[in-house]
Amino acid sequence: MEFPDLGRHCSEKTCKQLDFLPLKCDVCERDFCKDHFTYAAHKCPFAYKKDVQVPVCPLCNSPIPVKKGEIPDVVVGEHIDRDCRYRPGKEKIFTYRCSKQGCKKKEMLPLACEQCRSNFCIQHRHPLDHSCTRGSRAVSIAGCSAARASEAKPSGALNSLSSWWLAWQLRSKVKR
After folding, report:
1. What is the pLDDT of residues 86-121, one digit of tens each?
2. In whole angstroms, what is the distance from residue 60 CA to residue 36 CA?
3. Torsion angle defined by CA atoms of residues 97, 99, 100 and 105, in that order, rounded to the nearest 10 degrees
4. How far apart are CA 125 and CA 100, in angstroms?
């Protein structure tokens, strides 16, 4: 062999491969081949020094600083007991209030009227139910009941009537 000092053997006990471009572990300072240079591959005993992870509180989703030598689970537990801003039961689910005068119902999702753009509950979502005054023309009671019937179950006569009504609504929106 011409160059006896060229290259290093892998420090992994099961490998010992001669590598001409060995990689040195920045924690344990030993040389490894390309297959064993990661902390997990050579089971580095000092990997915890470089393994910097910030735990996140599962309740308030805020990062929790952990000092060296502290166990992250204990620190998160202390945070939940003392500093956590999460208070169960404080979140409001039904936040969308009905705009109809006298109605106090709230919904989980916004149900906005297409004509006046106000938010209403399920009972008052149609223009005739909340006496909608905005828009080009008010829909007749028959047209509104036909639309409701088509939402519930499609049938032959009502379906063609509601198709006509929907086409009329689309044409009036395009003209605006």
Report:
1. 766 656 777 889 999 899 998 888 888 888 888 999
2. 39
3. 0
4. 9
Helix H, strand E, coil C: the string for the chain is: CCCCCCCEECCCCCCCCEECCCEECCCCCCEECCCCCCCCCCCCCCHHHHCCCCCECCCCCCECCCCCCCCHHHHHHHHHHHCCCCCCCCCCCCCEECCCCCCCCEECCCCECCCCCCECCCCCCCCCCCCCCCCCCCCCHHHHHHHHHHHHCCCHHHHHHHHHHHHHHHHHHHHC
C-alpha of 176 from chain center: 37
